[in-house]
Design a protein that fits this description.
With 250 residues, the chain is α/β, with parallel strands linked by helices. It has a single domain (2-249), classed as Rossmann fold, CATH 3.40.50.300. It contains nine helices and ten strands. The chain has helices spanning 40-47, 87-97, 103-113, 126-139, 156-169, 183-186, 207-213, 217-225, 231-249; strands at residues 2-11, 14-24, 29-33, 54-59, 62-63, 72-76, 144-148, 175-179, 192-197, 200-206. Strands 6-7-8-3-9-10 form a six-stranded mixed beta sheet, with helices on both faces. The chain has a four-stranded antiparallel beta sheet with strand order 2-1-4-5, covered by helices on one side. The N and C termini lie far apart (67 Å). 29% of the residues are buried.
Length: 250
């Protein structure tokens, strides 16, 4: 079990994370949602010990360190692969460093995305690079798979089909934490929705509870975020009013 207690991270005067308490159990597929700058990426990096923070993050009661970091994998749009290596070169490297490497899964996902195995990663398109980043994260053999906006640049058909494939290949103990803005696409994929705003958790619901209430994921996010339905019309009224006022003074 992954536990975060009172986790806080500041950049200067800005709180990127504000006393975050969160527990993620094995086998969950957690959607981490929030606006740009809400703290999603910082939260993932804190879990992985990539940024300094105050508070406590533990995995099965132990602090995250070199002793257990291999139980995590990370797919990030910033990319963590070796750009001059081919996919086969990455497979050899990962097989030598991760005893839990899932070779059959790697091959199957490479075939699914139809990625060239002998081309260097710096010769891939941005979408292909993001797909390969996800493949590495899923093939490492980690218990907790963190994915931060993994499908930027990927077409809608690849994304939609991939979620179906992922549900079919994940084993009961594998846990996914997925950060994305594509709410409608992942609504039937995630089992839990965690909302973060200005570094604080403002909502945490299971998808089954939302379904029982007849509330969509989008409606839940809007409610938790205090979304104002008339914000567009108010902005347009103001803009058109200003333009009419300017015309009237000419």
């Amino acid at each position: 079990m992954l536990e975060l207690k009172n986790v806080t991270k500041t950049y200067g005067w800005t709180k990127a994370l504000d006393k975050v308490d969160l527990t993620v159990c094995p086998g969950e597929i957690v959607g981490l949602f929030g606006e740009n700058g809400a703290g999603k990426t910082t939260l993932m990096k804190a879990i992985l010990n990539l940024v300094a923070y105050s508070g406590q993050i533990t995995l099965d009661g132990e602090p995250v360190s070199r002793r257990n970091i291999e139980r995590f994998s990370f797919a990030t749009c910033e990319h963590s692969f070796f750009p001059t290596l081919t996919p086969d070169g990455h497979r050899d490297f990962y097989k030598n460093h991760f005893p839990t490497w899932r070779d059959k899964r790697f091959t199957a996902l490479m075939d699914f995305f139809k990625l060239p195995k002998l081309r260097r990663l710096n010769g891939y398109s941005t979408g292909q690079q993001n797909q390969f980043e996800v493949i590495l994260a899923l093939s490492q053999g980690a218990d907790y798979i963190l994915m931060d906006e993994p499908f930027a640049g990927s077409d809608v058909f690849n994304r939609e089909d991939f979620y179906k494939v992922l549900l079919g290949i994940l084993e009961p103990g594998e846990t996914v934490i997925l950060s994305t803005h594509l709410l409608e696409e992942v609504e039937n994929f995630v089992s839990r929705a965690v909302l973060i705003k200005k570094g604080a958790i403002v909502g945490d619901e299971s998808m089954s509870d939302l379904e029982d209430r007849g509330e969509s994921l989008m409606a839940f996010v809007k409610r938790a975020y205090g979304y104002e339905p008339d914000r567009v019309s108010r902005a347009l009224d103001r803009l058109t009013g200003e333009e009419n006022g300017e015309e009237g003074t000419k």
